[in-house]
Sequence to fold (438 residues):
Amino acid sequence: MKKENLLIWFSGAVVGLLAVLLVLFGNPLNMGFCIACFERDIAGALGLHRAAVVQYIRPEILGIVLGAFIAGYSSKEFRPEGGSSTITRFFLGILVMIGALVFLGCPLRMMIRLGGGDLNALVALVGFIVGIAVGVYFLKSGFDLGRAREQRTFSAWVLPIVMVGLLLLLILAPVFNPDAGGPIFFSIEGPGAQHAVIAISLIAGLLVGFLAQKSRLCLAGGVRDWMLIKDSYLIKGFIAIIAVVLIGNILIGILGITGTNTPVFNLGFAEQPVAHAEHLWNFLGMALVGLGSILLGGCPLRQLVLAGNGNTDSSISVLGMIVGAAISHNFMLAASPKGVPDFAKYAVIGGLIICLAVGALNREKA
Amino acid sequence: MAVEVDVRGLSCPLPVVKTKKAIDESSNGEIIVLVDSQVSKQNVTRLAENKGYSVNVESVGDEFRLKLKKGE
Fold:
Protein backbone atom coordinates (compact mmCIF):
# COMPACT_ATOMS: atom_id res chain seq x y z
CA MET A 1 0.00 0.00 0.00
CA LYS A 2 1.22 3.50 -0.73
CA LYS A 3 2.64 5.30 2.30
CA GLU A 4 0.11 8.10 1.83
CA ASN A 5 -2.86 5.71 1.96
CA LEU A 6 -1.45 3.95 4.99
CA LEU A 7 -1.25 7.28 6.79
CA ILE A 8 -4.90 8.21 6.19
CA TRP A 9 -6.18 4.75 7.19
CA PHE A 10 -3.98 4.89 10.29
CA SER A 11 -5.10 8.42 11.24
CA GLY A 12 -8.77 7.52 10.91
CA ALA A 13 -8.25 4.35 12.93
CA VAL A 14 -6.43 6.21 15.72
CA VAL A 15 -9.16 8.85 15.88
CA GLY A 16 -11.78 6.10 16.10
CA LEU A 17 -9.85 4.21 18.77
CA LEU A 18 -9.30 7.34 20.88
CA ALA A 19 -12.99 8.20 20.55
CA VAL A 20 -13.88 4.85 22.11
CA LEU A 21 -11.16 5.00 24.78
CA LEU A 22 -12.06 8.55 25.82
CA VAL A 23 -15.59 7.38 26.63
CA LEU A 24 -14.13 4.63 28.82
CA PHE A 25 -12.03 7.31 30.51
CA GLY A 26 -15.06 9.50 31.16
CA ASN A 27 -16.19 11.45 28.09
CA PRO A 28 -19.95 11.34 27.32
CA LEU A 29 -21.37 8.36 25.41
CA ASN A 30 -20.88 8.50 21.64
CA MET A 31 -18.92 11.70 22.30
CA GLY A 32 -15.34 10.57 22.76
CA PHE A 33 -14.53 13.30 20.30
CA CYS A 34 -16.78 16.04 19.00
CA ILE A 35 -15.35 19.29 17.74
CA ALA A 36 -18.64 21.20 17.82
CA CYS A 37 -19.73 19.90 21.24
CA PHE A 38 -16.33 20.54 22.76
CA GLU A 39 -16.06 24.09 21.40
CA ARG A 40 -19.56 24.65 22.76
CA ASP A 41 -18.39 23.41 26.18
CA ILE A 42 -15.46 25.84 26.02
CA ALA A 43 -17.84 28.71 25.20
CA GLY A 44 -19.85 27.66 28.25
CA ALA A 45 -16.85 27.44 30.56
CA LEU A 46 -15.94 31.01 29.60
CA GLY A 47 -19.48 32.14 30.38
CA LEU A 48 -20.26 33.07 26.78
CA HIS A 49 -23.42 31.02 27.26
CA ARG A 50 -24.97 29.85 30.50
CA ALA A 51 -26.29 26.39 29.67
CA ALA A 52 -25.13 24.80 32.93
CA VAL A 53 -24.86 21.24 31.61
CA VAL A 54 -22.34 21.99 28.85
CA GLN A 55 -19.49 23.95 30.43
CA TYR A 56 -15.93 22.63 30.45
CA ILE A 57 -12.64 23.63 28.86
CA ARG A 58 -12.07 20.56 26.70
CA PRO A 59 -8.34 19.79 26.45
CA GLU A 60 -8.99 17.77 23.27
CA ILE A 61 -9.62 20.99 21.33
CA LEU A 62 -6.49 22.66 22.69
CA GLY A 63 -4.53 19.51 21.91
CA ILE A 64 -5.68 19.35 18.30
CA VAL A 65 -4.56 22.92 17.57
CA LEU A 66 -1.25 22.43 19.37
CA GLY A 67 -0.66 18.98 17.83
CA ALA A 68 -1.16 20.43 14.36
CA PHE A 69 1.11 23.34 15.31
CA ILE A 70 3.88 20.92 16.32
CA ALA A 71 3.38 18.79 13.20
CA GLY A 72 3.47 21.91 11.02
CA TYR A 73 6.67 23.24 12.55
CA SER A 74 8.44 19.88 12.55
CA SER A 75 7.73 19.38 8.83
CA LYS A 76 8.34 23.05 7.92
CA GLU A 77 4.78 23.25 6.60
CA PHE A 78 3.71 25.91 9.10
CA ARG A 79 2.72 28.87 6.94
CA PRO A 80 1.29 32.13 8.24
CA GLU A 81 -1.41 32.99 5.71
CA GLY A 82 -4.84 34.55 5.65
CA GLY A 83 -7.00 37.30 4.26
CA SER A 84 -9.35 35.23 2.14
CA SER A 85 -12.85 36.58 2.91
CA THR A 86 -12.09 36.52 6.62
CA ILE A 87 -15.35 37.99 7.89
CA THR A 88 -17.41 35.71 5.65
CA ARG A 89 -15.59 32.77 7.20
CA PHE A 90 -16.38 34.05 10.71
CA PHE A 91 -20.10 33.97 9.93
CA LEU A 92 -19.86 30.63 8.15
CA GLY A 93 -18.28 29.31 11.36
CA ILE A 94 -21.29 30.58 13.33
CA LEU A 95 -23.71 28.90 10.91
CA VAL A 96 -21.84 25.59 10.89
CA MET A 97 -22.04 25.56 14.69
CA ILE A 98 -25.76 26.35 14.68
CA GLY A 99 -26.35 23.42 12.32
CA ALA A 100 -24.14 21.09 14.35
CA LEU A 101 -25.93 21.93 17.60
CA VAL A 102 -29.30 21.16 16.01
CA PHE A 103 -28.08 17.69 15.07
CA LEU A 104 -25.97 17.53 18.26
CA GLY A 105 -22.58 16.85 16.78
CA CYS A 106 -20.01 17.77 14.17
CA PRO A 107 -19.23 15.44 11.24
CA LEU A 108 -16.76 13.60 13.47
CA ARG A 109 -19.36 12.88 16.14
CA MET A 110 -21.78 11.87 13.37
CA MET A 111 -19.32 9.09 12.45
CA ILE A 112 -18.90 8.15 16.10
CA ARG A 113 -22.67 8.08 16.64
CA LEU A 114 -23.02 5.84 13.59
CA GLY A 115 -20.40 3.51 15.05
CA GLY A 116 -22.50 3.38 18.21
CA GLY A 117 -25.54 2.26 16.23
CA ASP A 118 -27.36 5.62 16.41
CA LEU A 119 -29.43 5.61 13.21
CA ASN A 120 -30.32 9.28 13.65
CA ALA A 121 -26.75 9.86 12.50
CA LEU A 122 -27.55 7.99 9.30
CA VAL A 123 -30.36 10.45 8.56
CA ALA A 124 -27.91 13.25 9.33
CA LEU A 125 -25.30 11.68 7.04
CA VAL A 126 -27.74 11.83 4.13
CA GLY A 127 -28.31 15.51 4.92
CA PHE A 128 -24.57 16.07 5.20
CA ILE A 129 -24.00 14.49 1.76
CA VAL A 130 -26.77 16.61 0.23
CA GLY A 131 -25.22 19.75 1.75
CA ILE A 132 -21.83 18.77 0.34
CA ALA A 133 -23.36 18.10 -3.08
CA VAL A 134 -24.73 21.64 -3.14
CA GLY A 135 -21.29 22.92 -2.12
CA VAL A 136 -19.67 20.90 -4.91
CA TYR A 137 -22.12 22.45 -7.38
CA PHE A 138 -20.90 25.89 -6.28
CA LEU A 139 -17.26 24.80 -6.55
CA LYS A 140 -17.86 23.58 -10.08
CA SER A 141 -19.54 26.83 -11.03
CA GLY A 142 -16.60 28.96 -9.91
CA PHE A 143 -17.16 29.53 -6.18
CA ASP A 144 -14.05 30.97 -4.60
CA LEU A 145 -13.52 33.00 -1.38
CA GLY A 146 -10.41 34.59 -2.86
CA ARG A 147 -6.71 34.12 -2.39
CA ALA A 148 -4.99 34.14 0.99
CA ARG A 149 -1.77 36.09 1.41
CA GLU A 150 1.25 35.69 3.58
CA GLN A 151 0.69 37.05 7.09
CA ARG A 152 2.99 37.99 9.93
CA THR A 153 4.12 34.97 11.92
CA PHE A 154 2.70 36.59 15.06
CA SER A 155 -0.88 36.35 13.72
CA ALA A 156 -0.44 32.67 13.05
CA TRP A 157 0.72 32.14 16.64
CA VAL A 158 -2.29 33.88 18.19
CA LEU A 159 -4.72 30.95 18.29
CA PRO A 160 -2.15 28.40 19.50
CA ILE A 161 -1.20 30.85 22.28
CA VAL A 162 -4.87 31.32 23.18
CA MET A 163 -5.09 27.52 23.49
CA VAL A 164 -2.19 27.49 25.96
CA GLY A 165 -3.98 30.26 27.88
CA LEU A 166 -7.15 28.15 27.99
CA LEU A 167 -5.11 25.23 29.32
CA LEU A 168 -3.86 27.45 32.15
CA LEU A 169 -7.41 28.56 32.91
CA LEU A 170 -8.45 24.91 33.02
CA ILE A 171 -5.66 23.90 35.38
CA LEU A 172 -5.83 26.95 37.66
CA ALA A 173 -9.66 27.09 37.49
CA PRO A 174 -9.99 30.66 38.79
CA VAL A 175 -13.47 31.97 39.63
CA PHE A 176 -13.70 35.52 38.30
CA ASN A 177 -17.15 36.29 39.66
CA PRO A 178 -17.87 34.32 42.85
CA ASP A 179 -21.46 35.66 43.02
CA ALA A 180 -22.23 34.05 39.68
CA GLY A 181 -20.14 30.96 40.35
CA GLY A 182 -17.82 31.70 37.41
CA PRO A 183 -16.40 32.05 34.86
CA ILE A 184 -14.60 29.73 34.70
CA PHE A 185 -17.76 27.56 34.82
CA PHE A 186 -17.55 23.80 35.18
CA SER A 187 -20.69 21.69 34.77
CA ILE A 188 -21.56 19.63 37.81
CA GLU A 189 -24.02 17.45 35.87
CA GLY A 190 -24.80 16.64 32.25
CA PRO A 191 -22.38 16.07 29.36
CA GLY A 192 -20.11 18.93 30.47
CA ALA A 193 -19.43 17.13 33.76
CA GLN A 194 -18.34 13.97 31.98
CA HIS A 195 -14.73 14.04 30.94
CA ALA A 196 -11.50 12.11 31.06
CA VAL A 197 -8.67 13.51 33.22
CA ILE A 198 -6.92 16.52 31.70
CA ALA A 199 -3.69 14.76 30.72
CA ILE A 200 -5.43 11.95 28.85
CA SER A 201 -7.71 14.34 26.96
CA LEU A 202 -4.80 16.62 26.09
CA ILE A 203 -2.61 13.77 24.83
CA ALA A 204 -5.49 12.39 22.76
CA GLY A 205 -5.99 15.84 21.23
CA LEU A 206 -2.29 16.27 20.51
CA LEU A 207 -2.18 12.88 18.75
CA VAL A 208 -5.23 13.65 16.64
CA GLY A 209 -3.96 17.12 15.75
CA PHE A 210 -0.56 15.76 14.79
CA LEU A 211 -1.93 12.90 12.67
CA ALA A 212 -4.68 15.00 11.08
CA GLN A 213 -2.09 17.57 10.02
CA LYS A 214 0.06 14.83 8.47
CA SER A 215 -2.79 13.01 6.74
CA ARG A 216 -5.04 16.08 5.98
CA LEU A 217 -7.95 14.16 7.52
CA CYS A 218 -11.19 16.03 6.78
CA LEU A 219 -14.65 14.60 7.21
CA ALA A 220 -16.28 16.90 4.66
CA GLY A 221 -13.36 16.65 2.24
CA GLY A 222 -13.77 12.88 1.86
CA VAL A 223 -17.24 13.10 0.36
CA ARG A 224 -16.40 16.29 -1.53
CA ASP A 225 -13.31 14.92 -3.28
CA TRP A 226 -15.16 11.78 -4.24
CA MET A 227 -17.97 13.81 -5.84
CA LEU A 228 -15.66 16.35 -7.41
CA ILE A 229 -12.82 14.29 -8.85
CA LYS A 230 -13.52 10.67 -7.83
CA ASP A 231 -10.59 10.90 -5.44
CA SER A 232 -10.99 8.39 -2.60
CA TYR A 233 -8.02 9.49 -0.47
CA LEU A 234 -9.79 11.42 2.31
CA ILE A 235 -12.86 9.19 2.43
CA LYS A 236 -10.61 6.37 3.66
CA GLY A 237 -10.16 8.23 6.95
CA PHE A 238 -13.92 8.70 7.19
CA ILE A 239 -14.51 4.95 6.73
CA ALA A 240 -11.73 3.99 9.17
CA ILE A 241 -13.33 6.09 11.94
CA ILE A 242 -16.75 4.43 11.66
CA ALA A 243 -15.25 0.96 11.34
CA VAL A 244 -13.00 1.25 14.39
CA VAL A 245 -15.69 2.83 16.57
CA LEU A 246 -18.17 0.16 15.51
CA ILE A 247 -15.77 -2.72 16.18
CA GLY A 248 -14.57 -1.10 19.41
CA ASN A 249 -18.08 -0.66 20.80
CA ILE A 250 -19.09 -4.21 19.89
CA LEU A 251 -15.88 -5.70 21.33
CA ILE A 252 -16.34 -3.82 24.58
CA GLY A 253 -19.79 -5.39 24.87
CA ILE A 254 -18.52 -8.90 24.10
CA LEU A 255 -15.53 -8.71 26.42
CA GLY A 256 -17.52 -7.05 29.18
CA ILE A 257 -15.07 -4.17 29.58
CA THR A 258 -16.34 -1.33 31.75
CA GLY A 259 -15.03 2.18 32.28
CA THR A 260 -16.10 5.49 33.78
CA ASN A 261 -18.63 5.45 30.95
CA THR A 262 -19.13 2.24 29.01
CA PRO A 263 -19.71 2.52 25.27
CA VAL A 264 -22.48 0.30 23.95
CA PHE A 265 -23.56 -0.67 20.47
CA ASN A 266 -27.27 0.06 20.43
CA LEU A 267 -28.83 -0.04 16.98
CA GLY A 268 -31.88 2.16 16.57
CA PHE A 269 -33.35 5.66 16.65
CA ALA A 270 -34.67 5.81 20.21
CA GLU A 271 -32.83 6.17 23.51
CA GLN A 272 -29.55 7.27 21.93
CA PRO A 273 -27.09 9.21 24.12
CA VAL A 274 -27.13 13.01 23.71
CA ALA A 275 -29.36 12.77 20.63
CA HIS A 276 -32.94 13.32 19.47
CA ALA A 277 -34.98 11.62 16.76
CA GLU A 278 -36.40 14.61 14.86
CA HIS A 279 -35.39 13.33 11.45
CA LEU A 280 -36.07 16.44 9.39
CA TRP A 281 -33.90 18.56 11.67
CA ASN A 282 -31.11 16.04 11.93
CA PHE A 283 -31.12 16.03 8.13
CA LEU A 284 -31.26 19.81 7.66
CA GLY A 285 -28.89 20.58 10.54
CA MET A 286 -26.19 18.43 9.00
CA ALA A 287 -27.00 19.70 5.49
CA LEU A 288 -26.11 23.15 6.85
CA VAL A 289 -22.88 21.78 8.34
CA GLY A 290 -22.01 20.03 5.06
CA LEU A 291 -22.62 23.05 2.87
CA GLY A 292 -20.94 25.45 5.31
CA SER A 293 -17.90 23.16 5.61
CA ILE A 294 -17.46 23.03 1.83
CA LEU A 295 -17.66 26.82 1.60
CA LEU A 296 -15.06 27.05 4.41
CA GLY A 297 -12.82 24.47 2.70
CA GLY A 298 -12.98 21.88 5.47
CA CYS A 299 -14.91 20.37 8.37
CA PRO A 300 -14.68 21.71 11.96
CA LEU A 301 -11.78 19.33 12.70
CA ARG A 302 -9.89 20.50 9.63
CA GLN A 303 -10.42 24.14 10.66
CA LEU A 304 -8.69 23.46 13.99
CA VAL A 305 -5.80 21.73 12.24
CA LEU A 306 -5.38 24.49 9.66
CA ALA A 307 -5.53 27.08 12.43
CA GLY A 308 -2.69 25.26 14.18
CA ASN A 309 -0.80 25.21 10.92
CA GLY A 310 -0.77 28.98 10.51
CA ASN A 311 -3.98 29.67 8.60
CA THR A 312 -5.46 32.74 10.30
CA ASP A 313 -8.68 32.47 8.29
CA SER A 314 -9.25 29.09 9.92
CA SER A 315 -8.45 30.64 13.30
CA ILE A 316 -11.29 33.05 12.63
CA SER A 317 -13.67 30.28 11.61
CA VAL A 318 -12.82 28.47 14.87
CA LEU A 319 -13.63 31.65 16.81
CA GLY A 320 -16.81 31.93 14.72
CA MET A 321 -17.79 28.45 15.83
CA ILE A 322 -17.21 29.29 19.50
CA VAL A 323 -19.29 32.45 19.13
CA GLY A 324 -21.84 30.39 17.21
CA ALA A 325 -22.14 28.05 20.18
CA ALA A 326 -22.77 31.00 22.47
CA ILE A 327 -25.44 32.33 20.09
CA SER A 328 -27.01 28.88 19.81
CA HIS A 329 -27.46 28.49 23.53
CA ASN A 330 -28.25 32.11 24.38
CA PHE A 331 -30.94 32.37 21.70
CA MET A 332 -32.33 28.89 22.35
CA LEU A 333 -31.27 27.55 18.96
CA ALA A 334 -29.57 24.42 20.27
CA ALA A 335 -31.35 21.10 20.31
CA SER A 336 -31.23 18.79 23.30
CA PRO A 337 -32.30 15.18 23.86
CA LYS A 338 -35.78 16.69 24.48
CA GLY A 339 -35.92 17.89 20.88
CA VAL A 340 -35.44 20.85 18.57
CA PRO A 341 -36.80 24.25 19.70
CA ASP A 342 -38.79 26.35 17.20
CA PHE A 343 -36.15 29.08 17.00
CA ALA A 344 -33.60 26.45 15.95
CA LYS A 345 -35.73 25.57 12.94
CA TYR A 346 -35.83 29.18 11.73
CA ALA A 347 -32.09 29.46 12.34
CA VAL A 348 -31.27 26.36 10.27
CA ILE A 349 -33.46 27.51 7.37
CA GLY A 350 -31.97 31.00 7.60
CA GLY A 351 -28.47 29.52 7.78
CA LEU A 352 -29.06 27.45 4.66
CA ILE A 353 -30.33 30.49 2.78
CA ILE A 354 -27.27 32.53 3.84
CA CYS A 355 -24.92 29.71 2.76
CA LEU A 356 -26.66 29.52 -0.63
CA ALA A 357 -26.17 33.27 -0.98
CA VAL A 358 -22.48 33.00 -0.01
CA GLY A 359 -22.07 30.24 -2.58
CA ALA A 360 -23.85 32.13 -5.32
CA LEU A 361 -22.34 35.56 -4.69
CA ASN A 362 -18.67 34.60 -4.36
CA ARG A 363 -17.62 33.62 -7.83
CA GLU A 364 -14.37 34.25 -9.50
CA LYS A 365 -14.47 37.24 -11.80
CA ALA A 366 -14.09 36.06 -15.37
CA MET B 1 2.67 27.05 -25.28
CA ALA B 2 1.90 25.35 -21.99
CA VAL B 3 -1.17 26.51 -20.11
CA GLU B 4 -0.27 28.12 -16.78
CA VAL B 5 -2.54 27.79 -13.73
CA ASP B 6 -1.76 29.91 -10.68
CA VAL B 7 -3.39 28.46 -7.56
CA ARG B 8 -1.19 30.20 -5.00
CA GLY B 9 -3.12 31.37 -1.96
CA LEU B 10 -6.18 29.32 -2.84
CA SER B 11 -7.45 26.91 -0.22
CA CYS B 12 -8.64 23.35 -0.58
CA PRO B 13 -10.05 22.13 -2.93
CA LEU B 14 -9.69 25.05 -5.35
CA PRO B 15 -6.17 24.20 -6.54
CA VAL B 16 -7.46 20.81 -7.63
CA VAL B 17 -10.66 22.23 -9.14
CA LYS B 18 -8.72 24.73 -11.24
CA THR B 19 -6.12 22.19 -12.32
CA LYS B 20 -8.87 19.76 -13.33
CA LYS B 21 -10.51 22.49 -15.41
CA ALA B 22 -7.21 23.15 -17.16
CA ILE B 23 -6.70 19.43 -17.79
CA ASP B 24 -10.21 19.07 -19.20
CA GLU B 25 -9.72 22.06 -21.50
CA SER B 26 -6.12 21.39 -22.44
CA SER B 27 -5.36 20.31 -25.98
CA ASN B 28 -1.60 19.92 -26.17
CA GLY B 29 -1.29 18.21 -22.82
CA GLU B 30 1.24 20.40 -21.05
CA ILE B 31 0.18 22.39 -18.00
CA ILE B 32 2.21 24.41 -15.51
CA VAL B 33 0.67 24.73 -12.03
CA LEU B 34 2.05 27.21 -9.50
CA VAL B 35 1.33 26.17 -5.91
CA ASP B 36 2.49 27.52 -2.57
CA SER B 37 1.82 24.72 -0.11
CA GLN B 38 2.71 21.09 0.42
CA VAL B 39 -0.98 20.20 0.65
CA SER B 40 -1.76 21.72 -2.75
CA LYS B 41 1.35 20.17 -4.24
CA GLN B 42 0.31 16.71 -3.07
CA ASN B 43 -3.33 17.13 -4.09
CA VAL B 44 -2.54 18.46 -7.57
CA THR B 45 0.07 15.73 -8.08
CA ARG B 46 -2.40 13.03 -7.08
CA LEU B 47 -5.04 14.43 -9.44
CA ALA B 48 -2.59 14.69 -12.33
CA GLU B 49 -1.28 11.16 -11.85
CA ASN B 50 -4.84 9.80 -11.70
CA LYS B 51 -5.50 11.57 -14.99
CA GLY B 52 -2.49 9.95 -16.61
CA TYR B 53 -0.09 12.88 -16.39
CA SER B 54 3.52 12.80 -15.31
CA VAL B 55 4.46 15.46 -12.78
CA ASN B 56 7.77 17.27 -12.53
CA VAL B 57 8.19 19.34 -9.36
CA GLU B 58 10.50 22.33 -9.24
CA SER B 59 10.98 24.33 -6.01
CA VAL B 60 10.97 28.08 -6.38
CA GLY B 61 11.74 29.61 -3.00
CA ASP B 62 8.86 28.57 -0.73
CA GLU B 63 6.71 27.75 -3.72
CA PHE B 64 6.49 24.97 -6.28
CA ARG B 65 6.18 24.88 -10.02
CA LEU B 66 4.54 21.66 -11.18
CA LYS B 67 4.97 20.67 -14.81
CA LEU B 68 2.22 18.29 -15.89
CA LYS B 69 2.77 16.29 -19.05
CA LYS B 70 0.34 13.91 -20.69
CA GLY B 71 1.08 10.24 -20.96
CA GLU B 72 4.58 9.46 -19.75
